[in-house]
Task: inverse folding
């Protein structure tokens, strides 16, 4: 009499399905993350999703302690990412302020500063040092910089009257004229 | 005696004049205390470098801020929460136990467990003696059950 044993059982089908679903999901997650990292910044032509920027006291917009991008619909928005620890930011600070003073009275252009990964006392000292008066506030939770997928500071994004990005400046501006020429091409 | 007393008062007043008045002052937290918190944080600017050893200006500012917050009596958790609120959850060395961050805690043990189970099963198969593995194997290895041998024996019987 021979002893009967069950033939060797493999991994059951549902376990295989679960494992494969899990592996595919993991690969997709890695692929999406890699794609995001290599994607670079948002591109001209992209519609910028609305965001809210809390403002430093003394830098409010029409008495509001925070602004939304949609508040500026119909205006050209110059969104500048900066930080007090960033040396290249200092190179363009005076130029940005001068350009802001040039357009401020017309009301069709607005300058907004988003302070990236900074501490408030140092940020305030920086704003005071360069006599900056345009709207400024901290990029809380780095949410706005993540929306724009910035690569560093300074970076400046020019958004048209409809909320569409039309120009990106990576690094500091070399002159006020450079800033003006980018704005004027949209105002004409 | 009176003269001696006046002299003492004069010396006392003089000492106040030259030394000033000293007030009790809370000592600032030490570098070790600051680094104990800073080592649990990462600056988004310099990824993969813990805040306590990061040499950049941004990180120095953050450490100064931690020192000030500790001096103000904030707890470690309050300081970490402040940094999360201001700079996002990615500044934490250990991801928070919420939302999809749970994956970071669950995936490694699940993968290790799955690997261990697979390894155990494979090891069992490898170490099992081949002959005693299954009834089917026995059947195959029994020469009397071999179809070719049976036919061969039958042919020999016919010739005899």
Result:
């Amino acid at each position: 009499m021979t002893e009967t044993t069950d033939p060797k059982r493999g991994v059951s089908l549902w376990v295989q399905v679960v494992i494969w679903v899990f592996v595919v999901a993991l690969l997709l997650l890695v692929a999406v993350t890699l794609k995001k990292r290599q994607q670079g910044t948002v591109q001209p032509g992209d519609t910028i999703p609305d965001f809210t920027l809390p403002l430093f006291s003394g830098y409010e917009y029409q008495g509001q302690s925070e602004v939304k991008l949609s508040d500026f619909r119909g205006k050209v928005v110059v969104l500048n990412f900066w930080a007090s620890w960033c040396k290249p930011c200092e190179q363009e600070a005076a130029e940005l302020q001068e350009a802001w003073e040039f357009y401020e009275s017309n009301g069709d252009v607005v300058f907004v500063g988003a302070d990236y990964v900074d501490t408030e006392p140092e940020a305030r000292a920086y704003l005071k040092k360069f006599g900056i008066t345009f709207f400024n506030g901290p990029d809380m939770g780095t949410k706005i910089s993540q929306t724009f997928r910035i690569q560093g500071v300074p970076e400046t994004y020019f958004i048209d009257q409809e909320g569409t990005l039309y120009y990106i400046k990576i690094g500091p501006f070399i002159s006020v004229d450079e800033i003006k020429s980018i704005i004027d091409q949209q105002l004409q | 005696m009176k003269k001696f007393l006046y002299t003492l008062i004069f010396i006392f007043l003089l000492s106040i004049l030259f030394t000033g008045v000293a007030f009790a002052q809370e000592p600032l937290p030490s570098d070790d205390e600051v680094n104990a918190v800073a080592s649990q944080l990462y600056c988004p600017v310099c990824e993969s470098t813990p805040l306590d050893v990061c040499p950049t200006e941004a990180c120095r500012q953050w450490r100064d801020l931690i020192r000030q917050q500790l001096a103000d009596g904030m707890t470690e958790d309050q300081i970490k929460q402040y940094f999360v609120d201001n700079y996002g959850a990615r500044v934490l060395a250990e991801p928070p136990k919420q939302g999809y961050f749970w994956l970071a805690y669950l995936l490694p043990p699940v993968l290790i467990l799955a690997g261990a189970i697979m390894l155990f099963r494979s090891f069992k198969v490898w170490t099992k003696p081949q002959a005693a593995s299954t009834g089917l194997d026995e059947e195959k290895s029994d020469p009397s059950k071999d179809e070719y041998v049976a036919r061969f024996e039958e042919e020999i019987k016919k010739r005899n």
Residues 100-159 of chain B form one domain. The interface with chain A takes residues 43-45, 56-58, 61-62, 64-65, 84-88, 90, 114, 125, 133-136, 138-139 of chain B (CB under 8 Å).
